[in-house]
Amino acid sequence: MSINWFPGHMAKARRQIEENLSKVDVVIEILDARIPMSSQNPMMNEIVKNKPRIVILNKSDLADQNMTNQWMNYFKSIGTYPIALDARSNNVLKRIEPVAMEATEEMFQRMEARGINRRPIRAMIIGIPNVGKSTLINSLAKRKAARTGNTPGLTKSQQWIKAGNNLELLDTPGVLWPKFEGDVGLKLSLTGAITDRVVHLDEVAIFGMKFLIEHDKETFDTFYKITNYDVDDIVSVFDAIGRSRGMLMSGNEVDYEQVTNRVVYDIRNGKIGRYTFDEVNDDN
Ligand code: G4P
């Protein structure tokens, strides 16, 4: 991930986003529905302040539906406007437009009371790398390619792009850095938000295996066709998968690297099932 972690870069990215915020009526914050807390920038509340905020729980096609409903309720309860979405689908404008209108209605009524005519709603998309910002811009603007740049902040030349009749978007999304504490890095990697260089992939695979064994063991066992392993001995899980899938090296040894890559790939891409790794709890 081409993110710079230096405080100076973060401050600059934040400043650029704050400057652009003054030009918009509503913020569209994109989170990964599988990790709504871990994919949020830790300073989001401070940065967005009192602007109405639409929270897109994106990649909801890969997340646990029941947990997504819980997260929807949570985001409603804190006064934001959540939408569970697959940014690649072709109905995103229909889903977002009415919510953007609802979120800005009060502001436009105040403007009208002062004699100012209605105009299209101006919005800005913000999120950490890989949550689907460009995909959403493309879908909203019904075009093929949006400029992608995963460096936090924004590029200099900004343009408004039209999304339907009522919405205008800044063409370059604001890119923020994720937080990086506790097991957040593991979750970010497991969902593909960060590349494999930043964390040790074997730790990510172990985290994923343990999660599945704890939450959905039957599906996990069936998917890899494994039975004989010790839940408390993670090496035995690698061995079971390696032998079941024929991921072996010379001498009939299990190729742990191959198992690691496979498990991370399968979880990341929803091959085993739909999972949400962040739970709604009192700490949110
Ligand atoms: P970014 O601008 O925030 O960095 O993210 P971007 O749109 O580039 O999306 C990152 C990856 O996530 C892309 O996959 C994209 O197709 C995928 N994606 C975006 N939204 C959704 C969604 O709602 N559901 C699912 N399942 N995937 C989504 P990629 O493999 O990196 O690229 P591509 O080969 O799909 O183009």
TrEMBL record:
GTP binds at N58, K59, S60, D61, N130, V131, G132, K133, S134, T135, G174. Keywords: Cytoplasm, GTP-binding, Nucleotide-binding. The keyword Protein transport does not apply. It is found in: Cytoplasm. It holds the Pfam family MMR_HSR1. Required for a late step of 50S ribosomal subunit assembly. Has GTPase activity. It comes from Nosocomiicoccus massiliensis. Belongs to the TRAFAC class YlqF/YawG GTPase family. MTG1 subfamily. GO terms for molecular function: GTP binding; GTPase activity. InterPro entries: G_CP_dom, GTP-bd, GTP-bd_ortho_bundle_sf, GTP-bd_ribosome_bgen, GTPase_MTG1, P-loop_NTPase. The keyword Nucleotide-binding applies. GO terms for cellular component: cytoplasm. PROSITE patterns: G_CP. Residues 10-178 form the CP-type G domain. This is Ribosome biogenesis GTPase A. One of its GO terms (biological process) is translation.
